[in-house]
Structures are given as structure tokens and as C-alpha cells.
Amino acid sequence: MSVIYCLNPHCADPQNDTKTRRCRSCGSNLILHKRYVAIKKIGKGGFGTTYLAVDMAQKNKYCVIKQLEPATTNPESYSTALDLFNREAKTMAKLDHSQIPRLLNYFEEKEQFYLIQDFVLGKDLEKEVKKGNIYQESAAKNFLRSMLPVLKYIHSKKVIHRDIKPGNILIERESKKLFLIDFGAVKEQVNTQLMNANPQSAFTKISVGTMGFAPPEQLAMRPVYSSDLYALGATCIYLLTGKAPKDLCDAETGELAWEKHTHVSATFAKVLNKMLELDVRKRFNSAEEVIQVLELVPYEEELAGSMVNLSNKDNNNNIKDNNTEEDQSDVTVSSFTSQNLADAIRKRKEKQKSNKPRIVPPQIVNPKIEITNPEMLLQEYRRGNRNFSQQTLSGFDLEGFKLAGCSFSQSKLIGTNLQKANLYRTNLVGANLAQGNLKEAILKRAELYKANLKNADLQGADLQDANLKEASLKETNLCGANLTGAKIDEEQIQLAKTNWRTVLPNGKRKWW
């Protein structure tokens, strides 16, 4: 630390050197809540200021301080800002997702309101694009596949984010994992059916969002879950074109005229355009719908191709295209679900006579690659694949492998050698790691919920802030492991092997 910031919003000169504990300008205490020290101003918005800070109670662990500081003196505006700030804290407290920074603390001090969150080291996507990192179609699809499950999760908690944009999505420097931030504009307890029946019942106090990324119904103070899907689609367009939505907006229709500024397949363009429908009734209803569509995109494209070929056959083969314009809708994005795709295939078959050649449409299968050896795993990782869920990797020698940010959810890793492997923020939910060698492995912030770690060796492993809730730790060797900030209960620790070098969740060593 070279600078300490004074958090008094009225301080004339808030920057101080590290040798003082009181501001040399206004005399305010520089240690917030007896533990947090602000060392860098990260940003300032309409409702407050954000600082990078260190938590002195957690061995100078980095965190983020968000201070309520509305750019107004109007009492009503301040009340609205405070309501949004409190709403953000309340929402963050109930969200527990690996791609959302955790809420660590929330309090009032000297009539100022503060929110403390996990710090994610990385850059937001807006900065990445401005550096010239424009996405291609494959990267854009991966972006959606990474962010859609986050939206599915927050919507399941009855939360609408309402301000999804490139500046509110961070890409972590080490793992390249995406994080959704800034829940200051959230709306809770939304009932879309009620909204459709009585729009007035779903009105919010103020219109919140970013122009260009917010859909019409949100700007009209009637946000629904699919409002976030529109914003995510607009964000994807920004990543593909490098242009803000306001620069792509058609003045007559209000739609985003984006396709001439990038090159994507017609099928993927349909997906994005359905996310960007101005009419809520024509837009995807849920994140799960879009997830299913993205899984079916390559198969729908093949099916569409086979149908076009079918219509072009000459009369010598006695095959004609008898479809009406209405029939063609069977293979558009509006019917993108596995069930509807199957219906389209069945209808096509019914139109063919029994004595005509049979054309079999492509089979819908799970495109997941089966990993058969360590070299293949490493090769896939280098290609950008991070999803190795439900794989059988038992007995693999992965010593020293760098696999930060991967998902091994529900995978079998029995007896696998992961000594000194980098598993930072890795998803190991429900994974079977029994008898595995994880000596000195980096498992910081890893998700090990309900993982099987029976008889596994984690001597000297870094498990700081890892989630070990309901993990099986019978006879697990935790000697010398660092469990600072980990989610683990005393009963689990008692089942494991520990010694005086084991650092407990409170940051202290175990004394006998």
C-alpha cells in the first residue's frame, strides 16, 4: 500500500500516506469499521464510490468497499439511492454463486452506509473490447454459455439484475472466469404472470438501467426476467461488433441493426435476434430456453440443410417440397427446443409416402468430449474448454496441471494425482476425489460442495475461501492445509486429520 484513502465524503484531500491512521486533511479515522483500509479508488457512479481495500482482520486480504455517496443533495433522491443500496445488500446476502462476488459485510458508520464484497482481479468486458479484443462467433457463444446459467440462478431467486452490460461483467485475470457485478439496480420478487395480467402491479419506483442495453419495458418501469436476456443479448452484440447499441439502433424501428457489422451464422443470428426482440411476448421467456437453443444450434442447422436438399430433388426421385410458408417455421428459432425439433422431424416424415426414399435427420446427441487421458485433458484446456463435468478421470496423473476455473462437477477423480495442481476457483461440486493426492494443490475459492474427499491427501493445500459444505472429509489429511475463510463446520474438521500447522477458517492455527 502506498496510499490510504479517507472515506469522509466531504474531505478536501482524501489521499494519505501509509504512516498515518487519521486523515491529515480532516482528521477522520482511516480504518473503517476497525478493519478495512481503502487503498485505491476503483470507480464512482451516480449512487456511490467504490474502493479497493484490504481487510486487516483477514491478513490483509483484498476486498471491495462500496460507499453510498449519491451525486445529489435532494432528500427524495437520497432516499431512493439508499433504498437501492439497501436492496443491493439484501440481494447479495442471499446469492451464493461462483460467478457473483460474495457479500462479506454491510453496515452503517457515522451516518455513512458501506457494503464490503469479494475482490475479483480482472477487467470488465467494456475495457477488453476497447483494447481491440472483438469476439468471433465461437467466443460469443461461449460467453452466453457462461453467463446464461448465472441469469438462470438469480432469476430462480426472484431477482432481476436490470443493469447487465459489458462494464458490469468482469473477466478474472488468472482463470478467465466471468463474474456478474453491481446488483445496485436489482428488482426482487417479480411475478411475470401478474405483470402480464396487470402491468401497473409490477411498476418500480424509478427506471433503472443503461440506455441501449435496457429493453423498452424496463425503461417503462416494468422489468421482467427476459429484460435481462435482452441486455445480455445487447452485450453480446457489443462484443461481436465493438459498437454500443445506441450506435446500431435503427431510428425507425428501434431495433439493433447489427448483422452487417460482424460475421456470424444465420442460425446464431436468429438466436441473438430473438433475445433482442422489443416485444416481450416474442422474446425468449427464460435463460433455460436460450441454453437449450445454444445446445441445438448445430443440429438445427444441419436439419435445415437436409430439408433444403430435400426440396431440391428432381422429379425422377419422386420427391417434392410440399411445405407451405407456415411449415417452414418448424425449423426457426421460435421453435428451438428438443421437443419441437422432434415434432418438426416427425411432421416431415408424415409428409413422405411410404415408397419414397427415407431421409434420416441428424441424431441429437450430447456433444461433450470424453476425456481418455491426461494429455487430452490438457489439450482441451488449451483450446479453451473448461467444462469437464461428469467425466471419469480416476487414476490420472495430473501433477502440477494448471486447471484454474474448470468444472469437474460430478466427475470421478478417485485416486487421481493432483499434487501441486492449480485448481483455483474450480467447480468440484459432487466430485469423487476419494484417495486422491492433492498435496499442496491450489484450491483457493474452489467449490467442493458435497464432494467426496474420504482418505484424500490435502497436506499443505491452499483451501482459502473454498466451499466445503457437506463435503465428506472422513480420514482426509488436512495437516498443514490453509482453511482461512473456508465454508466448513467443526464436525467436518473433527472427522479429518489435522495438526498444529492446519490453519482454521478463523485464520488461526490449531493448538493441541
Provide an overview of this structure:
Helices cover 27% and strands 11% of the residues. It has 512 residues and is of the alpha+beta class. The protein has a five-stranded antiparallel β-sheet with strand order 3-4-5-7-6, with helices on one face. Strands 8-10-11 form a three-stranded antiparallel β-sheet. The two termini are 36 Å apart.
Task: Summarize the entry for a quick read.
By secondary structure, this protein is of the alpha+beta class. The chain has eleven helices and twelve strands. The protein has helices spanning 75-94, 125-130, 137-156, 192-197, 216-219, 225-241, 266-275, 287-311, 338-351, 374-382, 490-495; strands spanning 4-5, 15-16, 36-44, 48-55, 61-68, 103-109, 112-118, 122-124, 159-160, 169-172, 178-180, 187-188.
CATH topology type of the largest domain: Transferase(Phosphotransferase), domain 1
Give the SSE string. Answer: EEEEEHEEEHHEEEEHHHHHHHH
Please indicate the count of domains: 4
Estimated radius of gyration: 26 Å
Shape descriptor reads globular
**Kindly, what is the distance between the CA atoms of the first and last residues, rounded to a whole number of angstroms?**
36 Å
Count of DSSP-assigned helices:
11
- Biggest sheet statistics: 5 strands, antiparallel
Residue stretches low in confidence (pLDDT < 50, at least 5 long) are 189-207, 302-338, 352-367
- Spatial sequence of strands, sheet with the most strands: 3-4-5-7-6
Characteristics:
about 500 residues; alpha+beta; Phosphorylase Kinase, domain 1; Transferase(Phosphotransferase), domain 1; five-stranded antiparallel sheet; three-stranded antiparallel sheet; 11 helices; about 25% helix; globular
